Batch of 2 targets.
Target 1
Amino acid sequence: MESKPENSYGVIFMTQRIVLAPEEMPKQWYNFAVDLPKPPKPYLGPDGKPITPEMMAPIFPMNLIEQEMCTDRWVDIPDGIREILAKWRPSPLHRAVSFEKALGTPAKIYYKNESVSPAGSHKPNSAVAQAWYNKQAGTKAMTTETGAGQWGSALAFACAQVGLELKVYMVRVSFDQKPYRKVMMQTWGADCISSPSDTTEAGRRVLAEMPDTPGSLGIAISEAVEAAVSDKTGKTKYGLGSVLNHVMLHQTIIGQEAKLQLKKAGEKQPDVVIGCAGGGSNFAGLAFPFAADKVAGAKIDIVPVEPTSCPSITRGKYTYDIGDKSGMTPLILMHTLGHDFVPSPIHAGGLRYHGMSPLVSAAVAQGIMAPKSIHQLECFEAAVLFARTEGIIVAPETSHAVAAVIQEAKQAKEEGKEKVILFNLSGHGLMDLKGYQSYFAGELSDYELPQAQIDKNLEAIKGFPSAE
Ligand SMILES: Cc1ncc(COP(=O)(O)O)c(C=O)c1O
């Protein structure tokens, strides 16, 4: 009999890392909006009426606006985009053999490794698409915001690939915590500014009101949108790293690859799919192709995980709100903590957003996904165990997914079930070591957002249209 290269845990070495051939990279993106049992509600203008593509044209190029409002189930990925994505895609799927062993769980844990991109996260999947479509549309420069710096550096990489200028407004607390993200952006040729800044009207207003604010994604978005629309030539456009439908669409390449890889690993389907959720893009990217199966009858638990200190889906309200601080964006139906919300300066900078992707929100509201929130200390503890077993030091955002996986794996152990758990390793944390340093120094604490603060922030959006 042929001998199998098995390790002490009985797992064949080959199945620890499941790779696809270059030609197996998906040729289309998947639009989950089409398969939502109740169709998503439109974005609204200040007058409460659905906005038209023309109304979004000062901010985005028309080719991306068309994708935002797309009603096709499948959208072809242009060859020019696939050519850039092929620098690191298809990304590997790993079986977390050592992690499973440390947990003593009967569960099989798989992770899709998005940390292998040049910028170190899933963000380039959409950054490359957005930069490429902008270039096609004649855009000369882009503006954007960034929380942890992952999106800003991803778009800086993408703009360098296609030849666009880029200005990034980086949330102040992350700008101070993560100086090397700025250097990455600079290396790829982008300009990175601490937000709030005195370079925009929106930034100056916030600085006058709250000079010591740690900043927020909502404020940084206002600045970046203002910087784009104030270029009267119309050649500067804005790019958003999460939340919007076209970003979710671009990320679905992750879940499609994972599906194929799980099949190659001999799994019919996962029992649980987990991703951390800030604006929802890495989670949606992995989960939407599986959510389609769930809508069609498959039994899969789909879990977005957020920080207890910024619990938009678990404790926010499902209602219309603006996507930024000062109303530069349309009204979006989503789970929200209110656009005035300034989160506590936790290390998972990319999860500190007041709202959530409208498609993820709709899926949660329709019972297709079940969100949970986890405290920061549990997340770092999980990340350290993962690093000591699997080797990868994950981003603080990703640590939320890892902590949720541990909860599931422990439950599987209690129930004696051999569950298949799949999660998205959305990024590495090698630029986030300050967070790990503070954790080891015992300087981090847990923070539960008081209900009174949520109520106060929601008071400000009382007059906005409701979900009904
Ligand atoms: C590594 C990583 N994971 C997750 C997120 C959260 O964003 P999203 O919910 O859009 O995936 C970020 C955002 O910056 C990130 O950098």
Target 2
Amino acid sequence: MQYSTYIFDSFSVSDTLRFGRAFADALPEQAAVALHGTLGAGKTLLVQGMASELDIDPQIVTSPTFVICNEYIGRKTLIHADVYRLNDSDDFLAIGGDEWFQSHAITLIEWAEKIDDCLPLNLYSVSISQCSESARQIVLKSPCEEVTDAVSSTLKAS
Ligand SMILES: Nc1ncnc2c1ncn2[C@@H]1O[C@H](COP(=O)(O)OP(=O)(O)O)[C@@H](O)[C@H]1O
Ligand SMILES: [Mg+2]
């Protein structure tokens, strides 16, 4: 599959929230997204930005590490999962994780590399790296160019 890439430099919390809003707006209602970044990179913050775009109260968005999966229903449904505590794909299938990808939702997965063989081909990925205390580089890889184009033009306009 051909992926298109968009790189966004975030210099503040509000930049990352803005990226989240643009991304949520651009994504179709059904999508799978691998979310990469070390602890404190801004993954939860980015999902809070996505939530606010979808009329979900961002304050209810918390880390899914201990619960494995949170679901938020808004203009589009968000499933925010963290599979760190699972051993492998067998564990993932045992909890019915593959059904997330069939559901009418944007499924965001942290530690997606643990369940590599269960991931759909048309997978989006967002990788956040920490450049300094307040700067982050956000790399979006998309299986379709429309989404990277839409995110890029929204962020340029705002
Ligand atoms: N540009 C930025 N983008 C995202 N987070 C930032 C930025 N600058 C500082 N931060 C801080 O980094 C932390 C990110 O936390 P969080 O979103 O919980 O990370 P993660 O979920 O990846 O562990 C927050 O305390 C936030 O205030
Ligand atoms: Mg988090």
